Amino acid sequence: MRGWHLPSRARGGTSGSWHVVLVVENIPLGADHRLRKQMDTLRARGCRVTVISPRHDVNAPYRRRQDISLLEYLAPPEVPGPVGHVLEYGWSGLAATLQLLRVSLRRRVDVVQFCQPPDIYFPIARILRGRGVRVVVDQRDLMPELLVARYPRAPRRAIGFLHRLEQQTQRAVDHTITVNEHLRRRLEVAGGDAGVSVVWNGPVLVRVDGAQPAAELRDPGDHLVVWVGKMGVQDRVDLVVEVADTVIRSWGRREIRFVLIGDGECLEDLRALVRRRGLDRWVRFTGWVPEEAVFGYLAAADVGIDTSLQEEVTPVKALEYMSFALAFAAFDLSESRRLADEAAVFTTPGDVTALARSLIDLIDDEQRRRVLGTAGRRRVQESLSWERQEASYLAAVGPSAQPSREERVRRRWHRTTEPPEA
Fold it and tell me: Which of 119, 173, 126, 167 is nearest to 146 (CA)?
């Protein structure tokens, strides 16, 4: 099967000779802003790019592109609860593997990147590496922590099982990229001896700078607060509604509007919550909208908000707020503060009243908003934007990162001779 083999010219040649396959499972290509940035970076370097993604309407623009190959598989049926996750992962893992086999039979594959979670691709990763293919994991979240965030009473055995999957993945791949230092350290402990590097998920500044404010959101005298992202259980978007209720109904600040941008499993429940609280006039949901519209809303906003309670998460929304020089209020979590210490106001995690107060203080202090916003924008420009991060991404994926044959043999020997876990 010559499609699996890495030719000698690719090991020492330019990235333009490389064929990179990007595999994503838990979000379609059209909605995955990080994957789209990676894809565009690879294409700009002349790589051939194939993307394996669940089928979704948001993929439509990419089916028409001539510079990439998009292979889609039927998304699994949506079943609530843990059983639904097992079904989704099993279905998608098998479907993605079959598509990967399909593309490998048609042309040479040099690099495969698995976008995770879930940590289910280590068996195929071992086969790929044995065939000379470089395997990279883009780890966006940690499955054990994600399980606890969604199901606080999750059995310890289930958490331990996810840790073992994580360890198997880290021992099976050539390199891992992730989104912050917390995840990097965790993955190194899990066995990422082949290397774990941080590639921040900052926006493309040239697109930020071209955004036009969405004038339809603003009424004279109003202030606009934005939240943007996926609306999963772990994202605690319900706390945004609690903040809005405190600000508008309890404190009578009826000139403040909230716009919640995005979709997800909790969207309809959140809409129902807003209706029950009588907040329809002040809280608006946009549903999923393309990046251009998201950036238009951010360009029109006065303040951002984040209500995540996950210590290990670096919120993409915070990077986007900062890129628009938009000060924001958030709970005081380690990675959020590491990212935006001088660009945001932080309050005690879970204290909705304190978060609402800090939001009001920002709205009422334009000078402070300007100072925080300027600091955030400067940090993005200097280090966090995708333009600054794509070199780190290419270093992990590109030809210069390919280990020698001797190094691959050394790593395999090390893993097969290390002592078993206690």
Answer: 119
How far apart, in whole angstroms, are the C-alpha atoms of residue 273 and residue 291?
A: 26
DSSP 262: B
Q: Are strands 134-139 and 256-261 parallel, antiparallel or unpaired?
A: unpaired
- Residue type, position 369, single letter: R
Contact 28, 56 (CB under 8 A): yes
152's tokens: 């606080």
Asked if residue 103 lies in contact with residue 69, where contact means CB atoms within 8 angstroms, the answer is yes
Domain spanning 2-202+387-417, CATH class: alpha beta
Q: Supply the pLDDT for residue 89.
A: 80
Residue written as tokens 């400067």? 378
Neighbours of 409 (CB within 10 A): 11
Question: One fold for both 2-202+387-417 and 205-384?
Answer: yes
- Whether 3 shows a pLDDT value over 70: the answer reads no
The alpha carbons of the chain give a radius of gyration, in whole angstroms, of 22
Answer for the pair 270, 241: CB distance below 8 angstroms, yes or no.
yes
Q: What is the pLDDT of residues 82-110, one digit of tens each?
A: 777 778 788 888 888 899 888 888 889 99
Give me the residue spans of the domains in the chain.
2-202+387-417, 205-384
Written out in words, the top-level CATH class of the domain with range 205-384 is alpha beta
Question: How many whole angstroms separate alpha carbon 248 and alpha carbon 49?
Answer: 49
- DSSP labels, 111-141: EEEEEESS---HHHHHHHHHTT-EEEEEE-S
Give the distance from CA 163 to its chain's centroid. Answer: 20
pTM score of the predicted model = 0.83
Whether residue 118 has a cis bond before it, omega within 30° of 0 = yes
